[in-house]
Amino acid sequence: MTEAVAAPVVPAKGLRSNALGMVSSTVIGMSSTAPAYSIAATLGFLVLAGTGFKAAAFVLLSFVPVLFVAFAFRELNAAEPDCGTNFTWATRAFGSRVGWMTGWVVLVEQLLVMSSQSALTGRYTLLLFGLDDLADNRAVTTAIGGAWLLALCWLCYRGIEVSARAQWVLLGIELTVLVIFSAVALSRVYSGTAGPQATTPQWDWLWPNGVSVGTAVSAVLLAVFIYWGWESSLSVNEESADPRHAPGRAAILSTVLLVLNYLLVTVAALAFAGVGEHGIGLANEPNAEDVLAGLGGAVFGTSGFGKVMGVLLIVSVLTSGAATSQATIMPAARTTLSMASHGALPKVFGRVHPKYQTPSVTTWAFGLVSLALYVLLALWSRNVLADSVDAVGLTIAIEFTVTALACVWVFRRTLLSSVRNFLLRGLLPFVGGVFFLAVLVLAAIAYAKPDAGETTVFGIGGVAVIGVVAILVGFPLMFAVQRACRDFFAGRRLTRGAVARDGQTIES
């Protein structure tokens, strides 16, 4: 490790410092993944992919590379706790253009996710009040989803403490319902009252033996993305009481708690419903889009308790969507704020509210662009909206690949200084980065098939087209802002090959 000149000083962004503890950061990280909705909307398709009871194994195994990438986030954050996270670290490692495009990719995935979650909150708000017919009306669900989006933007604008308290409530409801669902389902399985389709859980469900390579690839592509979102805990690092360490620990803890939650619900659902193609079986295609909704009545029954829990299952998915939307707005606004603070975007995007100490312009800019995109996609075609959501997988794979490899490159001269550095800064992030690079290639090939999604463009799957086009749009935008952001693109604002720390730099 060699000493270098002091890094260029970036004026304080104006965010509220010492506002969040590690627990609040963990809550934000978990909320961003939408645990209830993610597992409910993925488990059925995992079984349909041909995994059967081995779906639990792929939920577990997909966690491993995610954990490796989380180590990369933690190490980079400890060196430079900037709310721009991926954008800042990629710029340090690979230069201004790669850094800018990384920031763009992150914003694209967050915009597409907001469309998905807005549609979810709109639909489930109506289901909560028993308005099932209106829940299929695109105009009505779009209006309600849009209202949710604006309300959550306002909440994020009002202050990080207010946002964090809302996340506690929303996540608490969500996880409580999931635990009760799992406990009741498993108790009925072991007591023999679950029905003839039920199966006692087996340890070999957690190991993917007997699954073909093709099925395994499809299952991994499905399962790995249910963990995305935990990195939101790092985007609020500058507002943490311990910016260098707490957000990274929260990211690791979030991934561990997520896999435990997902495994509990997965095993409970598999054991209770089985993997049959009829009735409540998880291989019954009509149930795949939301297995929890399909199992609610069977698990809880039709008594008063059953009816209450059926409502709470709807509430858990609704709060899941709302919490994820809110936890998506926060990192998106902070990524854009950081880019402006480092001179990669016009200064107007670097404004922070003097009272609330939140990104004022970027919070509302992201919210309004998200609203416009959501309305456009929802009114254009439900199929296009569905494919745009699936396209997020491509951007997630890019984000994780770049960040993991940035960690290896930035710290490459320190890797042999200790076993810890070799593992946590080198080997494990490298394996995670290569894994997600492979996922990117496999996903692009799979999504390009005409029958992969709901739409096709010139014989190419709409998912691949939407994902690739959304990413490529970033290049003309980057060239458009270069003239106004010359210092950044010349490498004078964020020095390539150095990580800022305590006013000095550490040569990578």
TrEMBL record:
Major site of localization recorded for this protein: membrane
Transmembrane annotation, as ranges: 27-48, 55-73, 139-157, 169-190, 210-230, 251-275, 295-318, 361-380, 392-411, 423-448, 460-481
PANTHER family in UniProt: AMINO ACID PERMEASE, AMINO ACID TRANSPORTER-RELATED
Name the record gives this protein: APC family permease
Pfam families in the record: AA_permease_2 (PF13520)
Source species of the chain: Amycolatopsis albidoflavus
Keywords: Cell membrane, Membrane, Transmembrane, Transmembrane helix
Cellular location(s): Cell membrane
Membrane topology per record: Multi-pass membrane protein
